[in-house]
């Protein structure tokens, strides 16, 4: 957020079109995709385990 100089929601909305252009550039897309994929691999197990714990606690 600091790098974008977007300290408000309206500034962030104005920055989104430029961010989309950056992601769509072939040179940046691979890096973005790799980061997103790795993030999901680490975040998904946490989310899944939280869901399982919630279900188990509801049964008790």
UniProtKB/TrEMBL annotation:
<dbReference type="GO" id="GO:0097602">
    <property type="term" value="F:cullin family protein binding"/>
</dbReference>
<dbReference type="GO" id="GO:0031624">
    <property type="term" value="F:ubiquitin conjugating enzyme binding"/>
</dbReference>
<dbReference type="InterPro" id="IPR014764">
    <property type="entry name" value="DCN-prot"/>
</dbReference>
<dbReference type="GO" id="GO:0000151">
    <property type="term" value="C:ubiquitin ligase complex"/>
</dbReference>
<dbReference type="InterPro" id="IPR005176">
    <property type="entry name" value="PONY_dom"/>
</dbReference>
<comment type="function">
    <text>Neddylation of cullins play an essential role in the regulation of SCF-type complexes activity.</text>
</comment>
<feature type="domain" description="DCUN1">
    <location>
        <begin position="1"/>
        <end position="60"/>
    </location>
</feature>
<dbReference type="GO" id="GO:0045116">
    <property type="term" value="P:protein neddylation"/>
</dbReference>
<dbReference type="GO" id="GO:0032182">
    <property type="term" value="F:ubiquitin-like protein binding"/>
</dbReference>
<protein>
    <recommendedName>
        <fullName>Defective in cullin neddylation protein</fullName>
    </recommendedName>
</protein>
């Amino acid at each position: 957020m600091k790098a974008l100089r977007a300290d408000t929601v309206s500034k962030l909305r104005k920055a989104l079109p430029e961010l989309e252009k950056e992601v769509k550039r072939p040179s940046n897309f691979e890096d973005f995709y790799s980061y997103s994929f790795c993030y999901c691999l680490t975040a998904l197990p946490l989310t899944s385990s939280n869901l399982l714990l919630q279900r188990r606690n509801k049964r008790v």
